[in-house]
Design brief:
Distance between the termini: 41 Å
Number of domains: 1
Number of helices: 19
CATH superfamily: MFS general substrate transporter like domains
Shape: globular
Oligomer: single chain
Strand content: under 5%
CATH class: Mainly Alpha
Largest sheet: none
Structural class: mainly alpha
Radius of gyration: 20 Å
Number of strands: 0
Length: 393
């Protein structure tokens, strides 16, 4: 539920962009900062929450981060200027930064690697539904009560979920104390540096970690630079309402859920290399379908394919991220999330500029060409990494 709230806030403003531009009198590039500003703040703060989670306990910190998202959401609901809205969104991004990556790191601490990809896939259900729910909530409120109410609804959601997670974290603490358990697996005494810079250095000095961080940054820029403008594209090209355009993105979630439900089967049949290729191919076909769609109905299979492709590729990256530096897992996964969301921010900003100069289809063209190329490169790197193990076997 906390992952749902975090993901919903990330995509909440996508269908609002035309309405925000009219309300504040800003350009597409200016109002796009309501999306990318959140991602910038979210990404930059990962380097703080990761080490804190390794030191103070990941589960409790998730609860506190969720509750801390309430003030930023309320300030966004009351914003009187575009700059005020962007500032409130950035504040929410700061406080939400610890939720999903610390949850992934906690799963990495408690679930064996052989079961981790399917477990992370089930955890993705909250994120998938959050992406869809955020875009739908943003669109439905923009078309009815007004965009401010969407942020008010998010504040209530954060409050309710935060209280629940805090209660669960206290139960976890009591159970650990009763069993006499210490720190989570992978973070025992002497396993890693105790200072923040030392923990970050441990991750950065690992070649495979640098590779994963570079790939996920590029993935975020390419995929979300296009995905953020799908509702606006459908609204402007086919004349659908903002709520209907946002609702079409439910197919993105359905595609993601399709992957999640059959993740164990996909992992067994295709392996990590095959999943990376599947993700790149499905995303390429999705963007091509969206560009050549003669009617809005074609958006449904396009969004479905984008959901399958994105989660097949990203789940593979996530699984590798949880194992790229086990001794500082919270720091490693947080840096992974930081790279991903900074990539999103860069991608959305560049896509907005590309739309203004090259036309509304430009983000989809770029993503259709470069995303499968990135997936093939990552698959090749995975094959090279696994080759020594296969030779020994």
């Amino acid at each position: 539920m906390a992952a749902f709230a975090s993901a919903a806030a990330t995509r909440l403003c996508d269908p609002m962009l035309p309405d925000l531009a009219r309300h504040f009198g800003g350009s597409a590039a200016e109002v796009a900062w309501a999306v990318s500003g959140y991602a910038v703040a979210y990404g930059c703060l990962q380097v703080i929450f990761g080490p804190l989670g390794d030191r103070l306990g990941k589960y409790r910190l998730i609860a506190l981060c969720t509750l801390a998202c309430v003030p930023g959401s309320l300030l966004a609901a009351m914003a009187s200027s575009l700059h005020g809205l962007i500032a409130a969104r950035m504040l929410t991004g700061v406080t939400a930064a610890g939720i999903i990556p610390l949850a992934m790191a906690w799963i990495g601490d408690t679930v064996p690697y052989e079961q981790r990809q399917s477990t992370l896939a089930r955890f993705l259900i909250g994120q998938v539904l959050g992406v869809v729910g955020g875009q739908f909530i943003g669109g439905i409120f923009a078309d009815t009560l007004g965009w401010r109410w969407a942020f008010g609804a998010m504040a209530l959601l954060y409050l309710a979920v935060g209280v629940g997670v805090l209660a669960q974290s206290r139960l976890q603490s009591r159970l650990q104390a009763g069993l006499g358990q210490g720190a989570a697996a992978g973070t025992g005494p002497g396993a890693a540096p105790s200072d923040m810079l030392g923990q970050i250095r441990t991750v950065w000095q690992t070649p495979w970690a640098r590779t994963i961080l570079a790939v996920v940054f590029t993935e975020g820029a390419l995929i979300f630079g296009a995905l953020a403008f799908v509702p606006s594209h459908v609204h402007n090209r086919f004349g659908l309402t903002l709520s209907a355009a946002g609702g079409l993105m439910a197919c993105f979630g359905v595609g993601g859920l399709s992957y999640v439900l059959f993740a164990r089967h996909f992992v067994q049949r295709l392996g990590e290399i095959g999943l990376a290729k599947l993700g790149g191919g499905a995303l390429c076909l999705a963007w091509l379908t969206l560009m050549w769609a003669p009617s809005w109905g074609w958006t449904l299979p396009a969004c479905y394919l984008s959901g399958v492709g994105y989660y097949a590729l990203h789940n593979t990256l996530q699984t590798n991220a949880t194992q790229m530096a086990p001794s500082v897992r919270g720091t490693a996964v947080s840096l992974f999330a930081s790279s991903f969301f900074l990539g999103q921010s860069v991608g959305v900003s560049l896509a907005a500029l590309a739309i203004a100069r090259l036309g509304p289809l430009s983000p989809f063209v770029v993503s259709a060409v470069l995303t499968p190329a990135l997936a093939l490169l990552f698959a090749r790197l995975l094959r090279q990494r696994h080759a020594p193990t296969q030779q020994l076997v």
